[in-house]
Design goal:
By secondary structure, this protein is an all-alpha fold. The protein is built from eleven helices and no strands.
Length: 294
């Protein structure tokens, strides 16, 4: 039959299907017997061997000895010296398992490489993000320190540091001592003004102004009254002293007398302090709290 891999013509004269030498064998058995006798292979076997050669030619040399393999995978089934070690199906199954294992190992290696590359990329991104954060944080700290330094320099040039230091060491107000110190400070300031060459300002800071109260004390009407009215001899003396101090600390009068000699950086602080003194004097004369009107 053609399906057995041999054309009918090839069997003519060789096999008597009903009374031949094969006797009662079936047709397929007879064909197979004839094929074995002639040493031939079926078309299916030939196709199988060809596929096997193409699929495994590169792999078999690694594990099959050359004297056993001899270029034909079919010869391995007879083993070394002709001793059979495994059947064709067993050998094919083993070959398939080994090929699958190699594919699995390759896939695992590729997966591992991809995972390692992804991990390396993530680590690189995280390092870059951390570096960027540190850079931003460093810049923020730098700007904060620069601002603190600029504020310190401003306070130093305006005299606010002197005021803060005085307030930190503030003691009880002594009216007699404060009154004498105020009078002496104002007289020294007037001497400096008289001796100052024309066109050369004194550049007075906060600590250079002769303030009525020691540094750190609030300008309340009671504190100011205790110092400015210390040692008065009567109502007329009280009015005279208060009028003199009002003329001295009125913002416009003060600016006309000393504004030219003030340090530019200290001018805002001095101007604000002058307003506080003037308001406290007004409250002292009217009997109201500073900042109110009679």
């Amino acid at each position: 039959s053609p399906e057995d891999g041999l054309p009918p013509a090839a069997l003519e004269g060789e096999v008597d299907w009903s009374k031949g030498i094969l006797g009662g064998m079936g047709a397929r058995e007879a064909v197979e017997h004839f094929r074995k006798m002639r040493g031939g292979r079926s078309a299916e076997e030939e196709a199988w061997q060809q596929r096997l050669r193409e699929e495994c030619s590169s792999d078999m040399e690694d594990w099959m000895p050359e004297e056993t393999y001899a270029g034909d995978p079919g010869t391995y089934w007879s083993g070394v010296g002709g001793a059979t070690t495994e059947t064709e199906d067993e050998w094919a199954d083993r070959m398939w398992r080994e090929m699958q294992e190699k594919r699995r190992q390759k896939a695992a290696a590729e997966t591992s490489a991809f995972t390692s590359a992804a991990a390396a990329a993530r680590a690189k991104e995280q390092a870059a993000a951390a570096n960027a954060f540190r850079a931003v944080e460093s810049e923020r700290i730098l700007q904060r320190e620069k601002a603190k330094d600029a504020e310190w320099r401003r306070k130093a040039s305006s005299g606010e540091l002197f005021v803060e230091a005085a307030r930190a060491s503030l003691g009880p107000l002594e009216p007699a001592v404060a009154h004498a110190a105020y009078k002496a400070s104002w007289e020294r300031l007037m001497v400096r003004l008289r001796m100052c060459p024309a066109g050369k300002p004194l550049r007075l800071g906060v600590q250079d102004v002769a303030w009525p109260l020691p540094e750190g004390h609030a300008y309340t009407k009671d504190a100011l009254g205790d110092v400015l009215l210390y040692g008065v001899q009567g109502p007329a003396d009280i009015k005279a002293r208060l009028r003199e101090e009002l003329m001295r600390w009125h913002p416009d009068k003060f600016s006309a007398r000393l504004g030219y000699h003030l340090d530019a950086a200290a001018t805002p602080t001095i101007t604000q302090r002058v307003k506080e003194v003037s308001q406290a004097l007004t409250a002292l004369m009217t009997g109201n709290a500073p900042g109110t009107q009679s």
